[in-house]
């Protein structure tokens, strides 16, 4: 989970969101009121609800925001988060506590976790195989 989230406010406009996305190389901005998560805006939202609808850069966030969002709390397991992302076909999952944004789990976070899980499994398998071989085929000096 990333906790250093780039956020915006309802008072911001479409152009400001696009600049945030460009400058931070992101495609997702949580919209907050203080710490409270109000909704999200994705790069797709900017295109489909903003620019493709011929809205100018000064268009309010309220014209492109998604407020019906799926969230999790910090006690949600990684496997549960992955399942929620898969079943809802989403790439980013806000983590909230009492309605306040505390972080974001991105699909890339899960990919990195899977690499470590696979590496740990491979290492354990290798260690188990070595121990198994040592017990059945002792080395004679």
From TrEMBL:
<feature type="domain" description="CBS">
    <location>
        <begin position="1"/>
        <end position="57"/>
    </location>
</feature>
<dbReference type="InterPro" id="IPR000644">
    <property type="entry name" value="CBS_dom"/>
</dbReference>
<protein>
    <submittedName>
        <fullName>CBS domain-containing protein</fullName>
    </submittedName>
</protein>
<dbReference type="InterPro" id="IPR051257">
    <property type="entry name" value="Diverse_CBS-Domain"/>
</dbReference>
<dbReference type="Pfam" id="PF00571">
    <property type="entry name" value="CBS"/>
</dbReference>
<keyword id="KW-0129">CBS domain</keyword>
<dbReference type="InterPro" id="IPR046342">
    <property type="entry name" value="CBS_dom_sf"/>
</dbReference>
<feature type="domain" description="CBS">
    <location>
        <begin position="65"/>
        <end position="124"/>
    </location>
</feature>
């Amino acid at each position: 989970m990333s906790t250093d989230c780039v956020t915006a406010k309802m008072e911001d406009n479409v152009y400001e969101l696009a600049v945030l996305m460009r400058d931070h190389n992101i495609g997702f901005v949580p919209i907050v009121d203080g710490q409270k998560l109000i909704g999200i805006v994705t790069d797709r939202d900017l295109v489909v609800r903003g620019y493709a609808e011929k809205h100018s850069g000064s268009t309010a966030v309220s014209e492109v925001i998604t407020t019906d969002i799926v969230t999790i709390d910090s006690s949600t397991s990684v496997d549960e988060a992955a399942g929620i992302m898969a079943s809802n076909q989403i790439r980013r999952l806000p983590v909230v506590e009492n309605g306040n944004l505390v972080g974001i789990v991105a699909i890339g976070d899960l990919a990195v976790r899977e690499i470590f899980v696979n590496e740990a499994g491979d290492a354990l398998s290798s260690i188990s195989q070595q121990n198994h071989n040592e017990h059945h085929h002792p080395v004679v000096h």
